[in-house]
Amino acid sequence: MKIHLAESLHQPGKTLSTKRLASRLPFGITRLATALPALTMLLIVIGLNAYLQPDFFSADSLTSNLQNAAPVILICMAQAVVVLSGELDLSIGAGISVVNCVLASAPALAGWGAVATCCAALGVALVAGVVNGLLVGYFKQSALIATFATGAIWFGGALLLMPQPGGTVPEVLGEWFAMRVGPLPLAAVPLLIAAGIWAMLQRHRFGRRLIATGSSADAVSKSGVDTRRVKLLAYVLAWLFVFGAALCISAETSSGDARLGLPYTLNSVAAVVIGGISLAGGRGSMIGAICGALVLVLIGNVVYFAGIPSNYQELFKGAVIVVALGFTFVGARNSA
């Protein structure tokens, strides 16, 4: 059943609180259903991995896969937050690069230790989120154009810091990334923190306002909610996740590269769509985005362990992603 928000908000003698408004949105009813196609695809890909890798479920294999998946999941969570608010961020990949270059160059350029370097990188990420949020939320610029432009700026900053790949990330980050507590690698800590933040926000009015804004910004604005502030906070939160992803990638590579993060932008959008999140905003779930990210990671494993020649790997991977997108689209139509 379709709900016309603008009409509901203007019914004589009736007012809708943000909480009640969000509860009437399609997201409140179907957010788990939208993730079902992605979950099904994930189970299929896990089955293929288990068939191709006899030790897929061993502790070492699971640890390795989780370490590879952690930054991808965080990046996709970042994009999901923005998309759920009804916008898009094409600067995420360049943001990964500039944060990585800060982590790899600050110790040599400024003589900073690990804590100061990480704080500087976090500051860069949050400033980038604020800039994107101001451009899109307060200055009403097209998210597509604004974040494409800021992405060029972040990439230029990364090149200024590190024209050639190199530098050294603080050793403690690499040591942390490789450590395990029982079967759980410490690389999962940023994931758990991000999931905890999102779960907490889902119970807070900001989470409800974010989803409502993505569904119908005009109707929500007329109900008294400052949608500009909601979008600004959505970008800031997304870039907090971007920082976590860049931290994981930098700890794994132990060096800097201005082009390191560029492929992640389109991957994040693909994972969000595979996860059943509508690019129009306001419909989908973070569970779907996480499933979509895992599908992308495990598809790479299938391509590698199937022994597909390197010349055809990207072609095959792209074809599988297209099939996954089609599968998700059919599932979304059936759900609707």
Structure description:
By secondary structure, the protein is mainly alpha-helical. The chain has one domain (29-49, 56-335): ABC transporter involved in vitamin B12 uptake, BtuC (Orthogonal Bundle), CATH 1.10.3470. It is built from 16 helices and two strands. The protein has helices at 5-9, 18-23, 26-30, 36-52, 59-84, 92-110, 114-138, 143-161, 171-178, 188-202, 205-215, 217-222, 227-253, 264-274, 286-305, 310-335, and strands at 180-181, 184-185. A two-stranded antiparallel ribbon has the order 1-2. A hairpin with a 2-residue loop joins β1 and β2 (184-185). α7 runs antiparallel to α8 (143-161). The longest helix is centred in the C-terminal third of the chain and has 27 residues, at 227-253. The chain starts with a helix and ends with a helix.
Write a concise keyword list for the protein shown above.
336 residues, mainly alpha, ABC transporter involved in vitamin B12 uptake, BtuC, two-stranded antiparallel ribbon, 16 helices, 1% strand, globular, disordered N terminus
Brief summary of the model shown:
This is Ribose ABC transport system, permease protein RbsC. With 336 residues, the protein is an all-alpha fold.
